[in-house]
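Predict structure. Chain length: 198.
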Amino acid sequence: MRVIQLARNPNNYTCRSYLLLGEWNQLTDVNTLIDPGTDDYVLAEIEKIYTGCGKVPVEQVLLTHNHFDHAASADLLKQKYGAKVYGWVPGPGVDCLLKDGQVLRAGDEYLDVLHTPGHSSDSVAFYCQSQKLLFSGDTQLRIRTTGGKYTQDYVQTLVKLSQLEIEQVYPGHDEPLNHNVRSIILHTLQNVRQSEVI
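Prediction complete.
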């Protein structure tokens, strides 16, 4: 599976969007976009990329959560490509509701759906076990100090993620993580547990 980080509109607050393609753009690959963002900027970016002969550039859209900066342009992808939109809860453009433990084909690989409440109650992450990579949305994985206030749901999310083999993280806003990921998550979990948990 190839992960292409799309450029963002410099004039709007928006998330990072990721286009997932198969290594060879075969007809059986499922071209997938994670978090289309705020506006139509990603549509022009997608048009610049070779997504396979005779293939729809985006067949499905996966939302890490329904906040505006991640999901607002989902309807545009439906209109342009007929893409099916997946989210944890009903929202604008959402066709199918995700379930914890569900497996979806993306590119030429498979993603496990992980419910990861903490940032929001509808937050999910997508985990590719074979490539040891995680699309984390806005779930914060790097908290360097104690002191803050966190929910019990968020603690459980960190525990769940700390048990996975993750070597690469594609977050919703920050640069990808690709070094010592498990140590970073465990350190964050320790700092959160030493803070106020409500």
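Summary: The two ends are 39 Å apart (CA to CA).
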